[in-house]
Design brief:
6-stranded mixed sheet; about 35% helix; 4-stranded antiparallel sheet; about 300 residues; single chain; alpha/beta; elongated; 13 strands; 10 helices
């Protein structure tokens, strides 16, 4: 699969602070990619270098089949929404977007059509003639997302796009990102909302202290094909019996959390669902009370493991 965005040994220093220490990152075309990391990990610096706001001290950046950012080559093909996007206060929403659409090279008619489309997509259709100074924080965030979606760019970067949004509008934006991906766009989202990224993204990367410490598909990172968690209520816990039918797998029980964990070894013809069926049969036959079953761990737990 070809890359939409690739960093190879990218380094960036600000005085004595090394923001990026050899960043290697590969975002496949058509992915909905999540960037995860603590404050100061280098995510915003990486975005800024990708967009040409900053120049790397060392290393290579490749964007959409070419080299580093070039305004004319990527005009209309790449967009970004910064975390603290600034918008003019007196401009009407639709005029603001038409202006940026024309900067992309769209005709006045096409720019207006696109502006109205993306305003509807982010739930601001009724605010198209409102001046930006009258918008709430959440509406301004959605307007910034709309700006980055103008013209359906091949690659769009979003830094904390749902920060400050109420649950309904955050959900609507996630649906917008999913539709964009289905249409072939590559969407990169940086966020501290790990449950959101887990439900949204098909690929993720953990960045810490300027390097990628883990990356891959979300299913692989969370171990959905390799780890099973079964929550048990008070009652029998036949750990040995479960281990007896799952030969070669590791079965442990945490008394405090009441979680029975199975480290499942994938093998030909046997899926995680088969291991779940075997384990549940043994548990229920032994009178265990099952409260829930989960494949894999969460991105939040993985983040805590990697950052500890």
């Amino acid at each position: 699969m070809t890359s939409a965005l690739r960093f190879s040994d990218v380094r960036k220093r600000f005085g004595r602070t090394e923001a990026l220490r050899g960043l290697d990152l590969d975002v496949p075309r058509g992915a909905l990619y999540g960037l995860i990391g603590p404050n100061g990990a280098g995510k915003t610096t990486a975005f800024s270098i990708a967009c040409g706001f900053l120049q790397a001290d060392q290393g290579e950046v490749a964007i959409l089949g070419g080299g580093a950012f070039e305004a004319m080559r990527l005009k209309g093909r790449m967009s970004a929404m910064p975390q603290d996007a600034a918008l003019g206060r007196e401009t009407r929403c639709v005029d603001h977007l038409v202006y940026f659409g024309e900067l992309q090279g769209l005709s006045a008619t096409a720019a207006r059509s696109e502006a109205l489309r993306v305003l509807d997509d982010v739930g601001l259709g009724e605010k198209r003639t409102a001046r930006t100074k009258t918008l709430s924080h959440g509406m301004l965030r959605r307007l910034s997302v709309a700006q980055a979606l103008l013209g359906s760019p091949e690659l769009a970067l979003f830094d904390e796009p749902t920060s400050g949004l109420d649950p309904r509008h955050a959900h609507e934006l996630r649906e917008v990102f999913r539709r964009s991906r289905r249409q072939g766009q590559t969407i990169v989202v940086s966020s501290h909302n790990l449950p959101e990224l887990e439900s949204l993204c098909d690929h993720v990367a953990f960045i810490d202290r300027g390097i990628v410490v883990s990356s891959g598909t979300t299913d692989v990172i969370t171990g959905k094909g390799q780890e099973i968690e079964i929550l048990l209520a008070e009652g029998p816990v036949p750990t040995d019996a479960v281990a007896g039918v799952l030969v070669g797998d590791t079965v442990t029980f945490d008394v405090e959390t009441r979680l029975l964990r199975i480290r499942f070894q994938p093998r030909p013809g046997v899926l995680a669902e088969d291991a779940i069926a075997l384990a549940l049969r043994v548990l229920l036959d032994a009178g265990a009370r099952v409260s829930g079953v989960r494949k894999g761990t969460t991105l939040e737990k993985k983040f805590l493991e990697l950052s500890s």
